[in-house]
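Task: encode each sequence below as structure tokens.

Item 1
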Amino acid sequence: MNFDAMTAAPVNSAPRRAETLAALKAEERKLMTDRELIRALETLLQHADELDEKTRREAELTRREALRLERIPADALAEHNRLLGVASAAWREAKKRDDFGLFRPYLQGVFESSRRLALLARPESDPYDTLLDENEEGMSRAFLDPFFRGLREALVPLIGRIAKRPKPDASFLHGHFPREKQLAFSRELMGLMGIDGRRCALGEAEHPYTTFISRNDVRMTTHVYEDRVHANMFSILHEGGHALYELGISEELEGSPLGHGASAGMHESQSRLYENLIGRSRGFAELILPVLKRYFPEALGGVSPAEFFLAVNRAEPSMKRTEADELTYCLHVMIRYELEKALIRGDISAEDVPRRWNALCGEYLGIVPETDSEGCLQDMHWGSGLIGYFPTYALGNAYGAQILAHMKKELDFDGLISAGNIEPITLWLREHIHKYGMLKTPADLIRSASGEDFDPRYYVDYLTSKFSKLYRL
């Protein structure tokens, strides 16, 4: 239903769909808070040391969710889900019309409702910490504040040095690239990535995203801009990374509480790995440019792989997070992180968001959006109730860099991409990340894949090395 809402459903369908989703959520709550289920879970967890790993983890995660739902009254949960159903539709219309006023009351409502539910779920905790933990198990402001501070201290001076260097030509990425040809290219790119078309469908949405119904029913979306070819290409790579994660989860976990990706951050590690670590590599430029030339010979016929590589790695502040370069990307995430903290605390209201957004853009990126559609209305997340999700994009980047560093000890990563043989990379990720679903925590997955605890320095070192070479610093 959510996929239909984002891709094909008419605008006026939102209120009724919101009622339906609220009713379904209410039924889910009844099942999850049933006293017989709770007693069974408590009995299992009292004998946790006697359980196999899968059963123990299922019991832990199910009890965690049941406890959350037990503490939230049914009417509060139903009202929250009704609100999300209409808020998402309001966001789409507001973005289309460039009218923040259409979305403002819904945005205020979503943050107030999210705060209320977080306090009900964990009255002893800071509500934003609760929301962060729901998206990324174990995350909190105490972890993220120094994480983002460290990124700012390392990257802002590097961005400043690069700003003084000549920029590579990227003009050939802009022009006229017909929608149908871009969609045909998208499907060929999905094939190159090894995405099984019998298990994964592609649609179009205002904001690209991927949803997971089962390991045999994954739905990707993209958004085609006919004036720039790279936006769709990187959307497919990004959403394809999400899809490959779900498609690679062990069949034994299908239908169980463990049958999805470990966390939002771990999911983003996979999407950003395909989008950036593969998609913005020199080897991928050599692989994909001939394919693009078949579809768009007039625009790209005279472009070399070296020129294409430099163009897709052009580093300069931009308005759109989804089209930001690797170097400035996390600054976009920091803007949203600061706003979320302030909105949840009540330091600002929804009315203040455009002004505060623009101020933070000026402070972090040195540019200010001309419209709210390219500013505070650009992302679907808040209208969908995804509060506390944005930091997982930055965590995913950092997870991915650490995973890559250790993968390269076993695979000729660059050589495989240049040869158009991405399958061994996907198989390595399936063996070390994908197949486990939610069986392992994000921290355990990083530890088992890399042999050490999470370390953001891998990400900083990766960016520093790559962009210092690119810009000859």
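Item 2
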Amino acid sequence: MPAIAITWLRFNAVGLLGIAVQLAALQLYRQQLGWHYLAATALAVETAVLHNYFWHWKWTWRERQADASSLLRFQCTTGLVSILGNLLAMRLLTGVLGLPVLLANMISISVLYLFNFLVSDRYVFRLR
């Protein structure tokens, strides 16, 4: 199997776990703590971003020997786009269209998915 296919499979496995982390965090912040859906979304996304970074560093792109600057690159690309993209999508899908918070969040995650892979593969965990 080509290396990119293995990387893609690993990325998807981490991504699925990250989705579970994000949705669980969103549920916790929204339902248990009573936060506004946008504040809950921002922190839930950041929770998932940190989770995903760790597993991408240790497993998905482990052969690329990421350094401390890779976390900064991840936060400034995937993290920033994920937070802003999720907030915009949630404002539209929940705030304007009235979709339930978890459904709207799953839609916003799926819209940003391919971007996150490409940026991580080509920039964050780039070959040296």
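Check on item 2: Helices lie at 3-32, 37-60, 68-96, 101-124. The radius of gyration is 15 Å.
End of task.
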